[in-house]
Amino acid sequence: MSNAKSEGNCASMKDGGKVNPMDIVIVLWITTFVTMLGIGLIAPLMSIYAKQLGASNFEVGLIFGSFAIARTIAQIPIGSLSDKYGKKIFIVIGTFFCSIFTVMYAFVSSVIGLVVVRTFNGVFSSFITPVAGAYVATVAPREKLGEYMGIFSSAITLGFAMGPLIGGFLAAWYGIRTPFYFCGALAFIAFLVSYFKLKNVVVDRTGKCKYISNNIIRGNSFNKKLISLEFLKNKNFSVSYIVNTLYMAINAGIASYLAVYASDYHIGVASIGFLISSSNLISSVLQRKFGKIYDTAGISIMYVGLIVGALGVYALSLSHSFLSMLVSLVVMSIGGAMTSPSINALAMKDIPHYKKGEAMGFFTTSLNIGMVIGALALGFVADCIGLSNMYKFSAIISFIVCVGAYLAMRKVE
């Protein structure tokens, strides 16, 4: 896959005027943050709400799985279509319908209804984050790709960090359905911001681009297939995809069972929420800085991040108190802040501008696949050897992933 030499020339004309790419990134950051805040806000409450509707444990899993599966299936063709018709229209449609279907949670009266609404929410969420990430990768100057992807990633982690705290407060004080109304309002705000503030970008095969006010771009026929595996032929992309899948699997296993692990040592629900939110907050603050380091130091920051994260996971396996768990999770979050922007930037490094949407849609399936694999596989491991040993096992896997990535990328570097 060739690398366009003129990548990074997106600070060009917008209806006759100059545009700073960072202005576009700020709009995308706000849209993504508000959307992910809403998702993070209701996700911890969904199992409680499902139980109130009479869901079994299997049905609770189905409710969560329906979102991930629908999102995974939809985001590859959506990414390709966003390259063809422009990214703005998909972000606008996604935020609008996410606001509608989020409010509909409050009116569901059966488990099957919750599965249906959750499925539609998964589909339309694929219109937002992967497309916004591709837009950021498109407008980012090549020499600042890591920094820009770090900024974008911080919107996701910060949204997840603040969401559980706000959701728990609203549910406790105003009822379990109140967070759904609040999240719907947030998504509608994201819709308004993206509709009125976001511009479309038109990219030619040379990587030159311009900003336009049209909601839909017509005539871009670069991508003829909605789903393509051609990106896996690129070493940077394929290694990033595998590393991200395994990295997310490890994180999913940790997140899925952290509450159970902490409660075994008499740590309360509020304290567990603080552990999760504080570690995500630290990661979101540091991601832009480590993204900048990637731009100068290269892929080595990803290796360091994987090792630091592994040390944090291993320390967690030895933690028996709130303070020791907090320290372990902080170490993990620092490793994650190094790893995430590096993986995203490496994946997008050689992708032509006019295929960023398709590539990002494909790449973000690694997140969903990793989460499903991690929750199931590490849950099985935990049943066999216990939660503490499962975390030790996860740390070992993380080290192996780091070594494997280094060996795979050594010839490329």
What do these coordinates show?
The chain crosses the membrane at residues 24-48, 60-78, 90-117, 123-140, 152-173, 179-198, 239-259, 265-286, 293-316, 322-347, 359-381, 393-409. There is one protein chain. The chain has one domain (13-410): Up-down Bundle (Growth Hormone, Chain: A), CATH 1.20.1250.20. Helix content is 75%, strand content 3%. The chain has 14 helices and four strands. The strands form two sheets. Strands 1-2 form a two-stranded antiparallel ribbon. A two-stranded antiparallel sheet has the order 3-4. Helix 6 (145-174) packs antiparallel against helix 9, helix 10 (300-317) runs antiparallel to helix 14 and helix 13 (365-385) packs across helix 14 (387-410). The longest helix is centred in the first third of the chain and has 32 residues, at 21-52.
Intertermini distance: 16 Å
Give the uncertain stretches in residue-range form: 1-9, 11-17
What's the pLDDT, averaged over the residues? 83
Quaternary state reads single chain
Largest sheet: 2 strands, antiparallel
* Shape, per Cα inertia axes: globular
The sequence of SSEs as H and E is EEHHHHHHHEEHHHHHHH
Rg, please? 21 Å
Helix content: over 70%
Q: Structural class, judged by helices and strands?
A: mainly alpha
Strand order of the largest sheet: 1-2
Q: List the total number of helices.
A: 14
CATH topology: Growth Hormone, Chain: A
Q: Specify the CATH class.
A: Mainly Alpha
The CATH homologous superfamily is termed: MFS general substrate transporter like domains
